[in-house]
Amino acid sequence: MRFRHRTEVLVNADAARLFEHLDDPRRLSAHMQKRSAMMAGGTMTLTADAGGGRAVGSVYRLHGRVLGLALDVSSQVEEHAPPRRKTWLTVGEPRLLVIGRYRMGFNITPLVRGCRLGVFIEYAWPERHPWLGRLFASAYAAWCTRRMAQDAQRAFAEDR
């Protein structure tokens, strides 16, 4: 993959609780399932196999419509190492607008109080419309990793 982005935040949770929270693809992709400016008002729906996206080899799919176009991407869990790390990557050629194939994941580093969470994406521009990648992929990657990290941070903010 040619391009990368990473977001780091501090989270008020121990590593096991944070991993359990992030291990659910529905939570990580919540920002894709809600209407927003970055989603151009569209939404995506998540479906998963029997592994629920929580085991190596488990596959889950996001599909929906954005700007009237059908989008579809399947991801497979590549690494599942509770309570520290998880990675997943696209299976086949995704039908997305501004990024193509990608590998994503998160790292959790325990601290004296809470954890440091790093969410990353390594991606290519879409094969069908590379000019859209050139224009928007960097901003989209930053938004996506930031939303995942900040959503996790907010989920444990009330524990303080």
TrEMBL record:
CDD domains: SRPBCC (cd07812). InterPro entries: START-like_dom_sf. This is SRPBCC family protein.
